[in-house]
Amino acid sequence: MIVSRNIIVELEIILLVKPSVIIPIVISVMVFSGVEAADLPATSASQPPAVTATAPAANPEAEPSRTVTFKPSVTRTLDTQLSGFTSQDAEQLFARLALQETRKKQNWFVRGSLAKTKTINGKSTASVLTSRLDSRLEHMTSPNSYTVLTGVLSRRDRNYSKRKDQESGYQFMSYGVGKPLGPKAKGDIGLGFIEIFEESRGISPSAMVSLRGSRPLGKTLTLESDLLVLQPLTRIRDTKIDSEIGLAHALSPGLSLRLTWSLNNLVRSINTNREWDSGIRVSISYRHTSTK
């Protein structure tokens, strides 16, 4: 009697095709030695040993499924403007820097500007420094509405060589609600407090209406506007307006030439004591936007 011995060698190869799917392939190779010819299938001397491959079904429970979460995108915008001119009787320099961040549920905006003007009238010299700071914080309550906290500080200091220095301007803060009026337009209403520096009435309650937006007029031309209406509740006939409207012509990606007209009755005019202050300026603007 001849005793046969079977030696079984198993080699397992595990391939990861997807993070959630594992396909095991088991290759079994049987090597026979000392077996009678009657017990073996008829094979030629050159034929390799028989190979049997078994591929069981994939087990979906071998690895728990993974949930991929995406962080909401954040868009940040940096906007700068620079303008200036000089002549025999006057010189002026204007600079503005604005930062804005847009998220799914919350947006904020901060803008600061500084303008310095020097005029010479005979032997008299006047130096005027105008500074302004705007801020907004919006929180979306629904896709079509938001709450907004607004703050404005605008100040103009005039220094004269032969007259008493003067100060004018205002500060304002409000809380209200708003809604988008278009793809690039917003409207707000709210209540807050205002203080006008030239008046001795101190801080008084005020209602607020604000409109901000831009609209393309062509491939390279854009209309931009910013309107703030303040109504002191103690002086119904003393409505205050601070507005700005302009045209931006794109010279290259991010670089624009802007023509801006501003009008307000909250800051005294540079050269006179008129109630309304109006000015036109041409500036170079650069805007950079990043999303992550």
Describe this structure in words.
There is one protein chain. With 292 residues, the chain is mainly beta. The protein has a 12-stranded antiparallel beta barrel. Strands 1-2-3 form a 3-stranded antiparallel β-sheet, with no helix packed on it. The chain is 0% helix and 68% strand. It has no helices and 15 strands. A hairpin with a 3-residue loop joins strand 5 and strand 6 (106-121). It has strands at 5-18, 21-33, 51-54, 75-86, 90-102, 106-121, 124-142, 145-160, 166-182, 185-196, 203-216, 221-232, 240-252, 255-264, 277-291. The model is unreliable at 1-47 (pLDDT under 50).
What would the keywords be for this entry?
2 domains; mainly beta; 292 residues; 3-stranded antiparallel beta sheet; 12-stranded antiparallel β-barrel; 15 strands; Outer membrane phospholipase (ompla), Chain C; single chain; globular
Q: How many angstroms separate the termini? A: 79 Å
The average pLDDT value, as a whole number, equals 79
The total beta strand count reads: 15
Q: How many DSSP H or I helices? A: 0
Briefly note the structural class of the backbone: mainly beta
How would a textbook summarize the main sheet?
Answer: 12 strands, antiparallel, barrel
Uncertain parts: 1-47
Q: How would you spell out the order of helices and strands? A: EEEEEEEEEEEEEEE
Beta-strand content bin: over 45%
As for the number of domains, it is: 2
CATH homology-level superfamily of the largest domain: Nucleoside-specific channel-forming protein, Tsx-like
Question: Nearest-angstrom radius of gyration?
Answer: 38 Å
Multimerization state? single chain
Please give the share of residues in helix: under 10%
CATH C-level class of the largest domain is Mainly Beta
> Would you identify the CATH architecture of the largest domain?
Beta Barrel
The main sheet orders its strands as 4-5-6-7-8-9-10-11-12-13-14-15
In the CATH hierarchy, the third-tier topology of the largest domain is known as: Outer membrane phospholipase (ompla), Chain C
Characterize the overall form.
Answer: globular
